[in-house]
Specification:
Length: 159
């Protein structure tokens, strides 16, 4: 980790500015809101998480979300660099990485430990300015195996 100057600007500050600058539709923001939702205390938490974040087609595999909570309770950080399916911009991958750095300028300098596979599903969106739904947590899933309803739509073209 880089040394942090006393009472000065740090790479963590740079990362916070970059995070706050991401557009509302960015997949990393959606994953971060999901991570936060996993921590909420609510009697119907499973239904709320399922209804707001998960593809209906993958819901049975999420169970009570304990595996997702365990993953996000580790040292893994959510990368702000989203990757998109080749020829499938409606499928995104957010890397979960293990690093002490707050900013990495080279995508290949920190290998992803896991991926969150997301798909753009406006017909079931409930969060403003974002139609992402999480389909899988683990290895990146090939776009042809993801339940797509907007093939070819590129969320990055939004304002």
């Amino acid at each position: 980790m880089s040394e942090e100057p006393m009472n000065g600007w740090t790479d963590e500050d740079d990362a916070l500015v970059a995070y706050e600058s991401l557009p509302d539709w960015h997949p990393a923001l959606f994953v971060d809101v999901f991570r936060t939702g996993l921590e909420m205390e609510h009697p119907d938490k499973r239904s709320l998480l399922a209804g707001a974040f998960i593809t209906p087609e993958s819901l049975e595999f999420w169970g009570d979300f304990s595996r997702a909570r365990a993953v996000f309770a580790t040292r893994l950080k959510i990368s702000m660099t989203a990757m998109y399916g080749v020829g499938a911009p409606d499928v995104a991958y957010v890397r979960l990485v293990e690093t002490d750095e707050h900013i990495n300028h080279d995508l290949y300098s920190v290998i992803a430990s896991m991926h969150v596979t997301l798909v753009w599903r406006p017909e079931i969106a409930i969060l403003p300015n974002s139609a992402w739904r999480i389909h899988h947590l683990g290895e990146a899933i090939e776009p042809t195996l993801v339940p797509r309803t907007q093939p070819g739509f590129d969320p990055r073209t939004q304002p």
